[in-house]
Amino acid sequence: MTATTPTHVDSSVPELWARAVLRDHLYAGFWSSMVGEEGARMPIIRKTELLNNAGDTIHIQVTSPLTGAGITGDTTTLEGQEENLTTSAIKVIPLLRRHGVLVNRRANKKSILDLRGEAKMRLAEWGEEKMDDVRFAAFASQATLNGEGYTSNFRVVGGGTTGASDVGTTDLLDVETIMAAKLDLYNARALPLKFEDGRPMFAAVVHPNSLYNLKRSDEYRDWVREAHIRGADNPFFKGATAVIDGVVIFEHVNVVTALDGAGSIKVARNIFFGAEAFIEGVDETVDWAEDTFDYGKEWGVAYSFAFQPRRALEKNSMLVYSVATAP
Question: Hey, what's the torsion of the CAs at 162, 168, 172, 177, to 10 degrees?
Fold first, then answer.
């Protein structure tokens, strides 16, 4: 005697499709929590003058620090010994970026999903990721920007002086390089980040492969064992991996890499920065638009924004080149 099994009645067993969607989420935006207005001592300063005014370019004026010795004494005359005030400008030209999703009305009717809701969720996700992609690329770029020279300060693991081409297979990100990069920023009088307790600190976002190499070193383990992220309740520290010698370490897969090291090995452009290291101009905030086509047969959802990020004062940030090959 045999029993009837599910296999025997497969054709009569109903199949249900879950309405809840298993979404393949992208990484959440890294830089969005580091944007502030002028004077906020945040890494990225947002300029919005074009939002309510005509024009396509923002010129941000910069004055240089005074370098003169001044005078001393009660009888010394200051007239004729004054110092000139020197100014320069940083140019930002926001660029419009758009994307959209088009859906057939019949497809929407037959689908068990809320395609409009899914489209809006995915477009918002795309926008956040696109903003981060553009920021990472701009902060690591060495190409001319807006017709102006645009080169960064840098340090190469292992001590090279040319750039990424100096990086060899043994040039792994290490504590010594992090401390040296922090010293470079400090000696250049880069503006540090400031926290409630007054501590001046810098930050770095490094490629996951470079962080993997760093974590395997004994010196890194010593720092982590002896220190912890003080003030971890501050929103800035969310997602931080460690603090080494006053540098808050973050990781992100969007850190720019290229196969341009010695022997064409993969090299990361890890970004070290302080306050007001970057600036971005905005002339259109995020905009949603919906429309129908062919007498309602199809409908679409569009998403757009206009901005341009760039490095601000060169002294407030630098690149650290290190090996980024997968382990």
Answer: -20
User: How many Å separate Cα 89 from the centre of its chain?
Assistant: 23
- Enter the pTM of the model: 0.84
Yes or no: say if 205 and 271 are a contact pair by the CB < 8 Å rule.
yes
Q: Which amino acid is at 279?
A: I
Q: Is 318 in a helix, a strand, or coil? A: strand
Indicate if 113 and 134 belong to the same structural domain. yes
Residues 290 and 251 in one domain: no
301-323 pLDDT tens trace: 898 889 999 999 889 999 999 99
Residues 116 and 162 in one domain: no
Residue 6 phi, psi (nearest 5): -55, -30
| 250/238 Cα distance (integer angstroms) | 9
Q: Is residue 202 within 8 Å of residue 247, measured between CB atoms?
A: yes
Phi, psi of 227 (to 5 degrees): -130, 160
Q: Which domain holds residue 202?
A: 153-275+314-323
Residue range 236-268, pLDDT digits in tens: 556 788 889 999 999 999 999 999 999 999 999
C-alpha to C-alpha distance for 74 and 72, rounded to whole angstroms: 7
Nearest CA to 146 among 212, 80, 76, 93?
93
The CATH number for 249's domain is: 3.30.2320
* Residue 50 shares a structural domain with residue 98: yes
User: Same structural domain for residues 285 and 138?
Assistant: yes
- DSSP for 216-253, please give it: TSHHHHHHHHH---TTTTSGGGTT--EEETTEEEEE-T
